[in-house]
Amino acid sequence: MIEYISDMWNLAVDGGKQGVLFFAALYTFLVCLYSFIRQILIRRWPVTKGVLKNASLSKQGAQRLVLSDQEYKLDSLYSYKVGDIHYQGTRVSPWIIIASHNANFLLEKQLSGITNNEDGTVNVLYNPNNPHKSYLIQPGVIGMAVTLAIAILPVVLYLIEYL
User: Fold this and answer.
1) Could you tell me if 117 and 93 are in contact, meaning their C-beta atoms sit under 8 angstroms apart?
2) Helices (H) then strands (E): counts for the chain
3) Domain match, 126 and 54 both
4) Same structural domain for residues 16 and 60?
5) Rounded CA separation 116/122 (Å)
6) Are residues 132 and 152 in the same domain?
7) Burial code of 108-122, b = ≥16 C-beta within 10 A, e = fewer?
8) Alpha carbon distance 154, 160 (integer Å)
9) What's the total number of domains in the chain?
10) Phi-psi region for residue 120, left (φ > 0), alpha (ψ -120 to 50) or beta?
């Protein structure tokens, strides 16, 4: 195994396609697998009620001359209480999305995933080991499946091509 990785390293250093693809597939696999495991853990976080102060789309970066080049992100601010301690959060979802003007519907879809309770509060997921880390949206099964597919697909394609 170590010899194979060493051979792939030498190929990658020399610009060989197989070596570059090996490390690209390995990197993608590791990053997405970490993300997938993190999403599983976040789904297990406890929920508390919070007060949503702001949740909106905002322009990312400088104003663009061409509207379709403008990028947007979500801005949010909410407060919640765990035990006797008050916290503020700004994260809507573990999926951080920066979208163009033409794709800002993705951000609006993300905003629609915030659970509004009848009493005017919102559900806040918080890390029980570090309560100042929180989200308003729980990772969904479809998003987790996409993450896992992105992790596995490059490895499978590499194996089909080179083994």
Assistant:
1) no
2) 4, 6
3) yes
4) no
5) 5
6) no
7) eebbeebeeeeeebb
8) 10
9) 2
10) left
Judge if 158 and 85 occupy the same domain: no
Enter the tokens of residue 11.
């190929």
| Domain shared by 21 and 53, yes or no | no
Q: What percent of the chain has pLDDT over 70?
A: 100
Q: What's the domain range around 158? A: 2-42+146-162
Joined tokens for residue 43: 């789904």
Question: How large is the average pLDDT for residues 86-93?
Answer: 95
Q: Note the pTM of the prediction, 2 decimals.
A: 0.80
Residue 108 and residue 69 share a domain: yes
φ, ψ (nearest 5 deg) of residue 36:
-60, -45
Does the pLDDT at position 64 exceed 80? no
C-alpha separations of 161 from 26, 74, 83, 154 in Å = 15, 40, 54, 10
